[in-house]
Amino acid sequence: MRRITRIATVGVASAALALSATACGGKSSNTADSGEPKVAIAYDIGGRGDQSFNDAAYAGLEKAEKELGVKGTEAEPSEGEGDPDKVQRLTELARSGNNPVIGVGFAYGPAVAEVAPKFPKTTFGLVDDTSKTGKNIANLVFNEEQGSYLAGVAAAKVTKTNTVGFIGGVEIPLIKKFEAGFVQGVKDTNKNVNVKVQYLTQPPDFGGFSKPDLGKAAAQGQIDAGADVIYAAAGLAGAGSIEAAAKAKKWAIGVDSDQYSQKGLAAYKDYILTSVTKDVSGAVFNLIKSVQEGKPQNGEIRYGLEEDGVGLARSNPAFTKMTDVIKAVDQAKADIIADKIKVKTAP
């Protein structure tokens, strides 16, 4: 039976107590009092229910609960929180005996770097960030530009207006990888296709990952300007872009999870051509499994097209029936794996 406990950020006094305990040699165990292994994930901006990135991480935890018999704990982010909040959250999760403790998203980088040395027997997973490393840190990263290249190929093949759009949640290097791959895929397929690029917010404002209304407005603007295919890498905000595309009867391309199959987007699925998938669920599961087997992963664990760590979903029957598009996508995938196509990681 699946059991999940949610924790919330506690007060400053409790945080101080937790940090004091770790400073005095606090230890972490991977076994609950009942003998059941405990694992935890701390979600990125938007939290569980984003139909995308965080939900993919949750799927990995859910699989581990079912197949490995672990007890999972989920920790949700708070709006406007900073690094001290994340440090507190990860400290509490580690002190509670969870192993591994996984921070979902690059925003957890500084917190993982601070907390991990205090719990040397606990493995910390850090998704989408290689800048913070350590002996007990596993950096789970993906070649997002490769999957995005395939989306660009598909977009260039299906557009009838020779105009497509890319929407990024926040203009940061990680999302620039999505943009770079997509634009390159489009241009390599048809140089005459125009790609409209828009970012919803700029750092330090990360609201572009959590506000569907921003994604919806951006997509509508691109559609009004002639785009008939919209690819959004924007977390929860991407749901708004999908809604706008569907209502305009244009194609949307999802991200991270297979968004055609997400229940929260069922009303729009007929217009979700495909999704650029990242096997975040597999990466989370593999890390949990490695800890349970006594051989915890550490260092950079990279997932690309060759490992099926990124890819292009084929759940929409309308997409699979586009034989010329599928053929072009398959050829591009083979060429990337064979290193015949080198996909850029920056625009």
From TrEMBL:
- The coiled-coil segments of this chain are none
Question: Does Membrane count among this protein's keywords?
Answer: yes
Q: Which organism is it from?
A: Streptomyces gobitricini
Q: Does the keyword Signal apply?
A: yes
The record's listing under Gene3D superfamilies reads: 3.40.50.2300
This chain belongs to which protein, by name? BMP family ABC transporter substrate-binding protein
The organism's taxonomy opens as:
Bacteria, Bacillati, Actinomycetota, Actinomycetes, Kitasatosporales
Its record classes its membrane topology as: Lipid-anchor
Which keywords does the record carry?
Cell membrane, Lipoprotein, Membrane, Signal
